[in-house]
Design the sequence.
């Protein structure tokens, strides 16, 4: 059989994207469309005393201005599972009253015939505020921290007796690590186009969750779900900021209703800094204790992060720490401080990115304190099982990752003494760290159709946020259908399709791959049944299990010439097409399980079909309850540091990843590389600055908020263990989306320490901290 | 953006004649002006597009000077053989700025007049004396990591962001301008102004005057020159500190020197003090360090930018070492 899964094929949508043929949400132009531009608050807390739109209204071409005074009222969203969408700020529905909770909050939308006119008029909206005192500095307000109510016991973990063990410990290491606020800064801004047709609402939206936006729009606007359709065919990156839903699609839909014509609303880069989420600043205190030979006896990881006054979001930095190493006494805590800033939201490996930075930098410090090789310390404390959940890992090949990574970077050439290695004018440093991210999986559905002309189609309401989902789903479907990839079309990003996973939590491949495979197998199963029961078929009377479907043909296992093509069967039977739907009922997010409720239509059909569909039944995945599911990896870097000027160049970066089965080597490498580049940003460049006096973002564009550029790139060496995870799904692919950023930040910071002898614990490690 | 008119004169006199009225601005590459207009920082009622004027040439003059037309693109200037050979400091400064796409649009005249990158200047919600005189300076007590340490005033601490200008300051360039009342030549050190009490005024160019050229006078040793730019990332960012240097070293002694700093001053910062410290001294690390101390003497740090003082010194020492070697 022709193996398709695993092949490094080019992106199926690559040509469309580079030729401008892929339509992004901002690129729809329904007839009579007008442009909306948001007006944002310029104070951090208080009330709008008066909002004067008269001057803006006089601008020729302005067709409407929406403020809290004249906007329609919204309902609070219903439903809490991730599949039904999360409105980003539960207590702050847009344009409902005059309260201001943070600088940059949406307070009006101006609609005009052209973008320029709307933009111009938006600046003429005059707002008179009653300002109240506000707080926006996390470090200055630690005394206001509290234990969050959301997440509950999951966020405060304990095993053994850390305090007692600390008292008796032989070696102790206690340090505080901080990370600043990060902004996602995807290339594509948040963009929505909304059009009403009577009471039917159509929205093109840049989102990581078409199904979620659909159900939010329905519940917030008070519409039955079937009246709302959301489409997001191509997305220019989300990184979490398009995972929760922010005001833009809601306001766009409200505006379109108000002005009675389609409205397009695209955020400016500056607006994305306060109306599309961010990652919270974190202050992480880590305490490690070991015996004199390096066996860990205590791990404590206390995280303080920010939330807002309108919702609660926890940066779960300590969660991975609970299972990363074998240790009898562990304590993990998470606290929050509410500040007058936009609510944080998931950002590029939420929790794990800052969390693995802190724990992996701390492990490095302990290794130096013990005069022990950092890899050795990790092997000595290798977790054979998830000691917090008391479960075996579904799969874990981390030892091999360490080994291969060390070989690839040339770890054996490293002189362990800090500041001992040089190359010309530069100090040379080597660092490493462990990478890990959850291997999530949630309920998802898909529909498969085989047409009489021999091509096949897959529909699922998940989305490709730029990661290559279209491509790997095409490979999965092609293999299951027994068709070449160019005969299979995968359609995603339309809420009318059976509900697929939201593109977050690195879960799409593991969640949507199985129902796609199941649905395609079910179609082929039907086709084989048709053939064997058809007297005109060369396969008549044969056992179904003896028949192989490949390359558009069915044939007998031992007689490849005895068979016929898919099209022959369908044409003989006079069938235009053959279809099947599948829904896999798995949930990983214990205990906040999310067996998303089907909302009728395609989902119900999928559910129904799945009950009798053997391909799906085989995949109910009871294993989810028995095992702990994580992806793992090892990151190694070599840095060059200019000792006089403090500039750091990441010279070489190696990742060896254990993410289960690799579905496409090319997209997999790109995905990991993207994460590693994020980490270069996190370690060396990124961080949002706020004005210390009024809490307004100061670094509001890509000239001030620095992300890595080509000249910052190292030589990359990205490798995979490529062992299927036996329990996650019949496909065996674990999460790959976010793991690339984890560990890598620590590896860079650890390498800088090795190069310079300077341990910087406050990210980013900018040159001023090294001179 | 405010609505505006755009005209395209194709001779110099017409361009100058049409620019006398208040609220009229020339537009060259547009890489700075358009951004500022989009953000409502510049609000000209009329733009005079000067791209059809004949100011695109680079000429070697009989007196040994090089005359660079105001509309020469930054990339063309950087790769011009005479500049590469005789003024590497200028070529390197240009190539360290912005990105290839921007350098292909940006002109010499526009680069001279580019405005500060102080983030508060870019956000009309903040007070800023440079943008709205008398409104206050948000940077002095705000986030000021990128702001200046030399030439600051109580009204403004913004850096001049140009790299090209730092090289031109070191080279003692002359700015040629023409207005309704005739032609003038402005020595480089008199072209840009310190903020003092009126940070809204940045140059001695009068309203309506057109920059026609920049002249580089001959300097015997300008081929021994270098521009070093230090920043957080390796490309596509303005300088935290930069140094433009030219040295004439003979038998281990420095006979002549030119020094200017970028990223730290409120204008392109020629340091006559550093030059004095160098001339007659041995070409060694100690002399370079002495020059660096002299250059930063009187520097005033703010909350987030104190590191720039030491960074600028080290940048200058490195640049001097690169050109002058170590005897
Ligand atoms: C993303 C980005 C990064 C950048 N990075 C750097 C960097 O690292 N280093 C650096 O030095 N620069 C950098 N720049 C700035 C760039 O160098 C300037 O924008 C450019 O030089 C301006 O030239 P221009 O021809 O486009 O000017 P314009 O934008 O056309 O004009 C700028 C000003 O000059 C006036 N003007 C133009 N020509 C004349 C003339 N002949 N006579 C009188 N007035 C005139 C205009 O009226 C206007 O006020 C960057 C710019 C951007 C957008
Ligand atoms: S430093 Fe100058 S440009 Fe910056 S805010 Fe102050 S006055 Fe404005």
Sequence:
């Amino acid at each position: 059989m022709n193996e398709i899964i695993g092949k490094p094929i080019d992106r199926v949508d690559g040509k469309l994207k580079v030729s401008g043929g892929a339509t992004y949400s901002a690129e729809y132009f329904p007839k009579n469309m007008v442009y909306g531009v948001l007006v944002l608050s310029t104070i951090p807390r208080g009330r709008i005393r008066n909002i004067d739109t008269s001057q803006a209204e006089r601008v020729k071409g302005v067709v409407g201005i929406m403020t809290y005074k004249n906007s329609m009222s919204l309902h609070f969203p219903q439903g809490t599972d991730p599949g039904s969408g999360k409105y980003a700020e539960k207590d702050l529905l847009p344009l409902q009253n005059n309260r201001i909770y943070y600088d940059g909050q949406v307070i009006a939308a101006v609609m005009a015939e052209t973008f320029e006119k709307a933009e111009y008029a938006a600046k003429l909206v005059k707002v008179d505020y009653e300002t109240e005192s506000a707080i926006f500095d996390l470090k200055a307000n630690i005394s206001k921290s509290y234990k969050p109510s959301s997440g509950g016991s999951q966020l405060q973990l304990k095993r053994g007796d850390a305090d007692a063990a600390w008292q008796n410990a032989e070696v102790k290491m206690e340090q505080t690590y901080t990370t600043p606020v990060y902004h996602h800064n995807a290339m594509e801004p948040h963009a929505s186009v909304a059009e009403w047709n009577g009471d039917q609402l159509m929205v093109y939206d840049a989102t990581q969750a078409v199904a979620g936006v659909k159900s939010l729009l329905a519940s917030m606007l008070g519409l039955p779900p079937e009246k709302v359709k959301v489409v997001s065919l191509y997305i220019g990156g989300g990184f979490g900021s398009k995972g929760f839903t922010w005001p833009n699609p809601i306001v766009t839909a409200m505006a379109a209703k108000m002005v009675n014509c389609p409205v397009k609303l695209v955020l400016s880069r500056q607006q994305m800094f306060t109306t599309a989420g961010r990652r919270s600043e974190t202050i992480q205190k880590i305490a490690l204790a070991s015996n004199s030979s390096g066996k860990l006896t205590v791990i404590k990881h206390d995280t303080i992060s920010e939330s807002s006054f309108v919702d609660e979001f926890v940066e779960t930095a300590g969660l991975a720490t609970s299972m990363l190493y074998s240790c009898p006494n562990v304590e993990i805590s998470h606290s929050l401080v509410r500040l007058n800033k936009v609510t944080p939201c998931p950002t590029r490996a939420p929790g794990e990115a800052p969390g693995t930075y802190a724990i992996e930098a701390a492990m490095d410090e302990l290794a130096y304190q013990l005069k022990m090789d950092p890899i050795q310390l990790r092997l000595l404390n290798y977790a054979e099982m998830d000691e917090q959940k008391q479960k075996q890992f579904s799969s874990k090949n981390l030892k091999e990752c360490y080994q291969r990574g060390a070989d690839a970077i040339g770890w054996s050439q490293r002189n362990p003494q800090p500041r001992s290695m040089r190359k010309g004018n530069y100090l040379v440093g080597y660092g490493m760290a462990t990478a890990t991210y959850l291997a999530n999986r949630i309920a998802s559905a898909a529909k498969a159709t085989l047409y009489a002309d021999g091509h096949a189609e897959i529909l699922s309401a998940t989305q490709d946020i730029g990661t290559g989902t279209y491509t790997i789903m095409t490979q999965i479907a092609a293999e299951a259908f027994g068709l070449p990839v160019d005969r299979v079309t995968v359609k995603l990003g339309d809420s009318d399709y059976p509900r697929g996973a939201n593109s977050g939590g690195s879960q799409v491949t593991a969640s949507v791959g199985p129902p796609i495979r199941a649905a395609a197998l079910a179609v082929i199963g039907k086709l084989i049944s048709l053939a064997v029961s058809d007297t005109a078929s060369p396969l008549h009377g044969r056992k179904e299990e003896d028949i192989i479907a490949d390359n558009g043909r069915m044939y007998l296992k031992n007689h490849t010439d005895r068979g016929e093509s898919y099209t022959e069967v369908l044409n003989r039977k006079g069938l235009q097409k053959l279809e099947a739907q599948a829904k896999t009922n798995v949930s990983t997010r214990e205990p906040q399980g999310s067996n998303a409720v089907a909302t009728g239509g395609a989902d119900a059909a999928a559910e129904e079909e799945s009950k009798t569909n053997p391909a799906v039944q085989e995949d109910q995945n009871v294993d989810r309850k028995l095992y702990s599911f994580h992806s793992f990896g090892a990151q190694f870097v070599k840095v060059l540091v200019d000792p006089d000027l403090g500039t750091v160049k990441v010279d070489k970066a190696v990742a060896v990843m254990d993410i289960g089965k690799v579905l496409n080597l090319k997209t997999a490498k790109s995905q990991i590389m993207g994460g590693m580049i994020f980490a270069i940003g996190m370690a060396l460049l990124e961080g949002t600055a706020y004005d210390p006096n009024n809490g307004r973002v100061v670094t509001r564009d890509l000239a001030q908020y620095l992300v890595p550029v080509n000249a910052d790139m190292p030589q990359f060496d990205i490798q995979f263990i490529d062992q299927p995870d036996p329990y996650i799904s019949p496909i065996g692919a674990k999460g790959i989306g976010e793991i690339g950023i984890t560990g890598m930040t620590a590896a860079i910071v650890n390498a800088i320490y090795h190069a310079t002898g300077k341990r910087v614990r406050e990210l980013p490690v900018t040159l001023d901290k090294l001179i | 953006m405010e609505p505006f008119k755009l005209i395209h004169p194709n001779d110099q006199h017409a361009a100058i004649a049409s620019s006398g009225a208040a609220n009229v601005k020339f537009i060259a590459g547009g890489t700075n002006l358009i951004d500022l207009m989009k953000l409502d920082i510049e609000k000209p009622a009329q733009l005079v597009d000067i791209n059809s004027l004949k100011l695109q040439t680079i000429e070697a003059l009989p007196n040994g000077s090089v005359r660079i037309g105001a509309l020469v693109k930054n990339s063309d200037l950087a790769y011009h053989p005479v500049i590469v050979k005789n003024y590497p400091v200028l070529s390197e400064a240009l190539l360290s700025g912005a990105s290839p796409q921007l350098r292909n649009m940006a002109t010499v005249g526009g680069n001279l007049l580019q405005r500060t990158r102080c983030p508060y200047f870019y956000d009309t919600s903040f007070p800023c004396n440079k943008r709205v005189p008398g409104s206050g300076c948000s940077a002095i007590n705000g986030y000021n990591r990128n702001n200046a340490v030399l030439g600051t005033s109580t009204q403004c601490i913004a850096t001049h962001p140009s790299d090209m200008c730092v090289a031109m300051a070191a080279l003692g360039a002359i700015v040629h301008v023409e207005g309704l009342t005739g032609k003038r030549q402005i020595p480089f050190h008199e072209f840009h102004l310190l903020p003092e009490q009126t940070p809204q005024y940045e140059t001695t160019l009068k309203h309506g005057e057109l920059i026609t050229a920049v002249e580089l006078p001959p300097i015997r040793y300008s081929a021994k020159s270098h521009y070093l730019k230090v920043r957080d990332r390796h490309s596509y960012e303005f300088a935290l500190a930069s140094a433009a240097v030219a040295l004439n070293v003979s038998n281990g002694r420095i006979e002549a020197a030119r020094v200017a700093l970028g990223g730290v001053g409120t204008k392109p910062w020629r340091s006559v003090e550093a030059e004095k410290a160098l001339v007659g001294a041995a070409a060694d690390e100690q002399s370079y360090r002495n020059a660096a101390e002299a250059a930063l003497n009187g520097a005033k740090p703010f909350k987030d930018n104190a590191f720039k003082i030491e960074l600028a010194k080290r940048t200058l020492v490195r640049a001097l070492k690169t050109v002058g070697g170590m005897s």
